[in-house]
Design a protein that fits this description.
Blueprint (H helix, E strand, L loop, with lengths): L3 E5 L14 H7 L5 E5 L9 H13 L4 E4 L6 H7 L3 E3 L4 H10 L3 H9 L4 E4 L1 H4 L28 E3 L16 H8 L7 E3 L5 E5 L2 E5 L4 E4 L6 E3 L13
Parallel strand pairs: 1-5, 2-3, 2-4, 4-5, 6-7
Antiparallel strand pairs: 1-8, 7-10, 8-9, 10-11
Catalytic activity: Dipeptidase E catalyzes the hydrolysis of dipeptides Asp-|-Xaa. It does not act on peptides with N-terminal Glu, Asn or Gln, nor does it cleave isoaspartyl peptides
EC number: 3.4.13.21
Family: Belongs to the peptidase S51 family.
Length: 239
């Protein structure tokens, strides 16, 4: 598969503007491209598709990339098939996945990525790149017919991964606990991406980018920490 992916935990980190922390990797992903199709479907309320697209457009135009929104097309699936690259922004993962199926974009996105089209996701857009959305942190505020996602990579991702606070008196579940519960019913690995971190996938190679380690969860095994210099290629070969 000619995958060319940039899967980012979050669009904005503390003290930076929209996508600024991912500028170098974004430019590398889109080298030679002049335009990108933005899919704004993840926002459940508070900002329109038009305004969300305008936010993305402002960021990409600084880098010489023109942005169009999927909602601007009468046939969004046709827009995906003709796009130079695709970016799916964050929001609510359930809202996003439902719209991707309703607009019949799941298969076109898979096909174009298999052909080498650059794909970029943040937060919910990173969640849907995995096998399922079963490890999202979002509330299921809408019903989806399936948790099966784009399957651009054969594992799940948990963006915005948070470590347990050692001095906290909170007695609820940690992310580690919830992912362990997921693994009672599902085999695929889960990658916990901390804020500011991202996964760069090129063909059968994958590397971690950013200031933090990533926590990798395998079924029936203790969680493991991986640095940016560690080999993560096994994640593309499992199950």
């Amino acid at each position: 598969m000619s995958r060319n992916l940039l899967l980012i935990s979050t669009s904005t980190t503390h003290g930076t503007g929209y996508l600024e922390h991912a500028e170098e990797e974004t430019k590398a992903l889109l080298e030679g491209k002049k335009s990108i199709l933005f899919i704004p479907y993840a926002r459940p309320g508070g900002i329109s598709h038009k305004d969300y697209t305008a936010r993305a457009r402002e960021a990409f135009e600084k880098w010489g990339i023109n942005v169009s929104g999927a909602h601007e097309y009468d046939e969004p699936a046709k827009a995906v098939k003709e796009a130079e690259a695709v970016f799916i922004g964050g929001g609510n993962t359930f809202v996003l996945l439902r719209q991707l199926y309703q607009q019949k974009l799941v298969e076109p996105l898979r096909e174009r990525v298999q052909q080498g089209m650059p794909y970029m996701g943040t937060s919910a857009g990173t969640n849907v790149a995995g096998r399922t959305i079963g490890t999202t942190n979002d509330m299921p505020i809408v019903h989806v017919k399936t948790f099966n996602a784009l399957e651009l990579v054969p594992f799940n991702i948990n963006p915005h991964f948070l470590d347990p606070e050692p001095n906290s008196t909170h007695m609820g579940e940690t992310r580690d606990t919830r992912i362990a519960e997921f693994h009672h019913h599902n085999r695929q690995p889960v990658v916990g991406l901390r804020e500011g971190s991202m996964l760069r996938v090129q063909g059968d190679k994958i590397r971690l980018v950013g200031p933090h380690t990533a926590r990798v969860f395998l079924q029936a095994e203790k969680p493991m920490e991986f640095k940016t210099t560690d080999d993560l290629n096994f994640l593309l070969e499992v199950y």
